[in-house]
Design goal:
CATH topology of the largest domain: Alkaline Phosphatase, subunit A
Number of domains: 3
Shape: globular
Helix content: 10-25%
CATH class of the largest domain: Alpha Beta
Structural class: alpha/beta
CATH superfamily of the largest domain: Alkaline Phosphatase, subunit A
Largest sheet: 19 strands, mixed
CATH architecture of the largest domain: 3-Layer(aba) Sandwich
Radius of gyration: 27 Å
Number of helices: 13
Number of strands: 38
């Protein structure tokens, strides 16, 4: 059974309304293993071809980039296991359970409480599929693998159609004797069963026209090259669900997570015509064997991608593209981490000149190729132009919230990732993220804009000028000016380095392995105090008689928590001391059963990643500060009242009522459903002070102080900001005592004039 958080998500299915009118696209996600940033045409291979140098051939990915966008600053993680955990859960390595390639990850990496891509999109009404390396939930034994933790399986996280490898060590060959499959026959643990990894499953099917059929090449191994089967299963899924989409509008989400081009490289040579794609390459025969094998692997999977993409164009294969779903499908291509060292890098410059490689904190270890195509939204007429390069930083943790927003379903609470759905769809307001975080064996990093700070391992050493010397505590690079991360700027910019170091450590990157955020909910009665541990649920992560993690007590910065009213009357939680969370949601049951969090005089509330004030939930502020490194969101039926400081950007879809004066240190972004209530008179300045930009929308009303009578023609400032865009939905506003005011706007303020 799914625990509280996942059940709540599935039942509510609510929307965050920033991309309201965007269509719900199909989503097809190609995910490769260990393919360096420079391994595709637009990141260096096209230039190598033009210069007559050896290059790897990816014609289908290059075509995908030409009709989509190549994100030149896409990021994964340093190695396989944390990359998949961060991808699926939206948490970076400081917060996800799998922050490194630990053998225990296979048993426990993705917990029941996590809402993955599969969970979210299945709840949104998508048909879901996963094929390839999953990495969690099964044992490593090649001949007789077993299920070790049901709660971390793909079938436990929303994926209906599965052909996968559950243990990353089992994936250290392309010829596993069996693979895990779903749907499965009844009574199989976790809804998965082992099936032979055999091409016999596909004899007689015209799946892959660019590779001769098995009957024509009996030398094809009896045990299949697993990525062939993963790709064929994906192709079947796309053909069938494209048809369903055309007939019924039911969208699909498919994630093909192949093992290519991870080692072992030489196994590709066991396949017939394995190097045929390079038969006309004058360089190929002179290349080292590992370089030949790696290039053949990459080009083979590119051909699979091409056939799957062709199925979007013509799902039934009859030559008539009238059933095409290309325009309605977001296609993504990404690698999990940078490429390894070896001939692939030395011969083809597979990491594109970036410093370091797989497993390292340098850009060569964490920056990855990332392409997205969505022709109905990304084209010659859109702001994000087809065929262009985009230097926006996009982390793997951004994809889960992006998919949720595009699907019109609620983004899981407290994620490290930020949705880029508005950027892709061209609709809604794009929220920004300040920084991204990574960990590796040789350090931890934070990237903010063009600056990257690397915090080295304690007591580490490095070689410099053929001598071994202690590693500096941290180094600071300007990635725009220093592509190879060679020039340490920390001495020149000590304040910036110290600021970034503090942010990095605050993201829990120094925690021991096995640390992760924990999940809690409010159990207190009406009027109970939030400082008392007995008013919160405990967290225990256990499986098969083993307890992996516990967290009891009062809230702290690793908590994802909800204060939800499930009774039939309104309830209040009383914050009598400062409160800190990673993510906090406040939600009521109905208008007559609201849930309020009341902060005592001067009490501060922190949601490091997020504070979400959901429907019929509210916060009362009494002179304290509500802070977040991201935005504070007020959903359409949520409310915030009082005086004090918002130390974050405020995304307002619901009601904000200012009691005296409210200062917002970030931006204010209002939607059409927002309602702002401001007091008059104000003794000094405006009642609402915005330090950043303001985008106005929705409605405005005013509340007059007792005995106050406004003067005819007098200007009353109500809002000041660094800049003001937009207007309220009406030009005049009436007060609670019947006086009417006209709204006046300037570039930096809003005022009222009594008429």
């Amino acid at each position: 059974m799914k625990p509280f958080f996942s059940l709540l998500f599935a039942v509510l299915g609510l929307h965050l309304p920033s991309a309201e009118s965007a269509p719900r696209p199909n989503i097809l996600y190609f995910y490769v293993d260990d393919m360096g940033w420079g391994s595709i045409g637009p990141n260096g291979q096209a230039e190598r071809k033009a210069k007559g140098l050896p290059y790897v051939r990816t014609p289908n990915l290059d075509a995908l980039s030409a009709r989509g966008v190549n994100f030149t600053r896409g990021y994964g993680c340093h190695v396989c296991s944390p990359a998949r955990s961060s991808q699926q859960t939206g948490f970076h390595q400081g917060h996800t359970f799998a922050d490194r390639n630990d053998p225990d990850n296979a048993k426990k990496a993705i917990r029941a409480e996590e809402i993955t891509m599969g969970d979210a999109l299945l709840a949104a009404g998508y048909t879901t599929g996963y094929w390839g390396k999953w990495g969690y939930g099964g044992s490593a034994d090649q001949k007789n693998p077993t299920i070790e933790n049901i709660q971390t399986l793909p079938t436990s996280h929303g994926y209906q159609h599965v052909l996968a490898e559950l243990h990353h060590v089992r994936a250290h060959t392309f010829f596993q004797p069996t693979l895990w499959s779903a749907p499965a026959a009844p009574n199989n643990p976790g809804g998965l069963e082992l099936i032979p990894n055999s091409m016999e499953n596909y004899i007689g099917k015209d799946h892959y026209p660019n590779t001769p059929a098995h009957q024509e090449h009996p030398e094809y191994p009896e045990t299949a090259y697993c990525d062939d089967l993963y790709a064929f299963a994906t192709l079947d899924f796309v053909r069938e669900n494209a048809r369903v989409y055309r007939e019924s509008g039911k969208p699909f989400f498919g994630l093909l997570a192949v093992q290519i081009p991870h080692a072992p490289f030489d196994e590709i040579s066991q396949l017939p015509l394995w190097d045929e794609a390079y038969a006309d390459d004058p360089h190929f025969s002179d290349l080292p064997p590992q370089a030949q094998q790696w290039a053949a692997m990459v080009t083979r999977i590119d051909a699979h991608f091409g056939n799957i993409l062709a199925a979007l164009e013509d799902p039934n294969g009859d030559g008539d593209p009238s059933d095409s779903v290309v325009d309605d499908t977001l296609v993504l291509f990404q690698s999990d981490n940078g490429g390894p060292s070896g001939a692939n890098n030395s011969v083809f410059d597979a990491n594109g000149g970036l410093r370091g490689n797989k497993g390292k904190i340098e850009e060569g270890g964490i920056r990855v190729p990332l392409i997205m195509s969505w022709p109905s939204r990304i084209n010659a007429d859109s702001e994000l132009k087809a065929g262009s390069n985009c230097d926006r930083v996009v982390d793997v943790t951004d994809l889960l919230p992006t998919f949720c927003e595009l699907a019109g379903t609620e983004i899981p609470l407290g994620l490290d990732g930020v949705s880029i759905a508005p950027l892709l769809s061209g609709e809604g307001r794009q929220q920004e993220r300040e920084f991204i975080i990574h960990e590796a064996g040789n350090g931890k990093s934070i990237i903010r804009g063009n600056h990257k700070l690397v915090l080295g391992p304690k007591g580490g050493n490095r070689k410099k000028n053929k001598k071994t010397e202690p590693m500096p505590e941290f180094v600071l690079y300007d990635l725009d000016k220093d592509h190879g991360e060679k020039n340490d700027l920390s001495a020149e910019k000590p304040e910036l380095a110290a600021e970034l170091k503090a942010l990095l450590i605050g993201e829990r990157v120094n925690e021991p392995k096995g640390f992760s955020n924990t999940y809690h909910h409010w159990t207190g009665k009406d009027g109970a105090r939030t400082s008392e541990a007995s008013n919160w649920s405990d967290y225990v992560y256990a499986n098969a008689g083993m307890t992996y993690q516990t967290d009891k007590g009062a809230p702290h910065l690793a908590w994802i928590a909800r204060i939800e009213n499930q009774s039939d009357k309104s309830s209040l939680a009383k914050a009598d001391a400062d409160l800190e969370f990673l993510g906090l949601e406040i939600r009521g049951k109905s208008e007559s059963a609201a849930q309020t969090l009341a902060l005592d005089d001067g009490v501060n509330l922190t949601g490091r990643n997020e504070i979400r004030i959901s429907d019929h939930g509210g916060v009362l502020v009494d002179g304290g500060t509500i802070s977040s490194l991201r935005a504070i969101q007020i959903l359409p039926k949520g409310f915030l009242s009082g005086k004090g400081t918002i130390d974050a950007s405020l995304v307002q879809h619901g009601r904000v009522s200012v009691g005296n004066q409210l200062t917002v240190n970030g931006n204010l972004d209002q939607s059409s459903s927002s309602h702002l209530i401001l007091p008059l008179p104000q003794e000094e300045g405006a009642p609402l002070l915005i330090k950043g930009k303001t985008r106005l929308n929705g409605s405005l009303s005013v509340s007059l102080g007792e005995g106050f009578t406004p003067e005819e023609g007098k200007i009353y400032p109500i809002l000041t900001a660094a800049s003001v865009e937009g207007t309220f939905s009406h030009s005049k506003v009436s007060s609670d005592r019947g006086f009417e005011f006209e709204i006046q706007y300037s570039k930096t303020s809003v005022s009222l004039v009594k008429k």
